[in-house]
Amino acid sequence: MPSYATLAFPFNLFIAVTFKMKVKINGKSVVVRGKTVKDALNSAKINPETVLVKRKGQLMPHDEIIKDNDVLELIAVISGG
Amino acid sequence: MNSQKCNCGKAAVYLRVNEGRHYCGLCLTRQIERNFTRTVSKENMVKKGDNIAIGVSGGKDSMVLLHLMDKLRKKVPIKIFAITIDEGIKDYRNKSIVVVTDLTKTIGIEHHVFSFKDEIGASLDELKESKFCTKCGVFRRYLLNKKSRELGATKLAVGHNLDDESQSIMMNVMRGDAGRIKRKSGSNKFVPRIKPLKNIAEKELVAYAIVNNIPYFEGECPYSLDNVRRDVQTIINEMEAKHPGTKNQIVKFGEKVTFVKEPQDIKDCLKCGEPSSQEVCKACQLRGEVKKI
Question: Any idea what the CATH number is for the domain that residue B195 is in?
Fold first, then answer.
């Protein structure tokens, strides 16, 4: 009897492929592995603690779902000094 | 439209990760204003009749502080005015001062600007040497205290936030300086400092400023890129991203630590008369170095 994991394998692969998209972060194209703002920031190697993110002028929570070709604008959080 | 929802049902604009709670603009505003009021009242930071100087650089923290203090003065009979220290950093401070001047005019309060050039003898740009941040910090604190006292302030409000507090505590730990965590002041020449934003995270202050259309200067000080605080900030932010709530816990630790340095023997500086723990205050010592260049 094949295990559940073996049976689910092609579906897991399908999900992994689906959750790969391209967004623009401050004008730069970034390939995102995942589906949230936080995933996009991690893909761009940006610490989510250091920025807020806007889409179409509206602030977004870091767990907001993003879509392929979304244009994200970052607002720096760290002090000016 | 964002798909995540606030508890009130509106679209969320912010996620407070350590609570796992979403906030819409209005609920975030209410929450931050409640936090500010709680900090002010819990620590008796303000009393009727106070004349409060607000150190305003034009950055998001001090501009939000100015906005909140303006709201507070409509509920509590206090006077407020703004002080800005112009360190003389080209394309940075001159731009931020304009933002402060505009807001102080809009809300109708006095705005005083004091420059390093006039008060110390040289702008920060003219100090072509290292230790910019040390000198800038000493001179800025010195002038803020001296000028607010001369202008009749009973309190000096500064925009230190939760992130600044956690960084200061970590820096004290790294220096092995427990006494700096809590220190009593031993001179009435020190204008009591209040930090009404000390329990609000930097990220939330930016979100508050955006949601409430509070203008602020977004530039970055060219001298702040390579200092110890910046390194500590990076480390704490990495920890916060991996372990949400770290900043709060560091600040709680700082509050629990009960080491209190005995009031130091504060005397008047022999050169300028300002309060100091040494014969000649740190600002005058550094000013001596400035005059040599």
Answer: 3.40.50.620
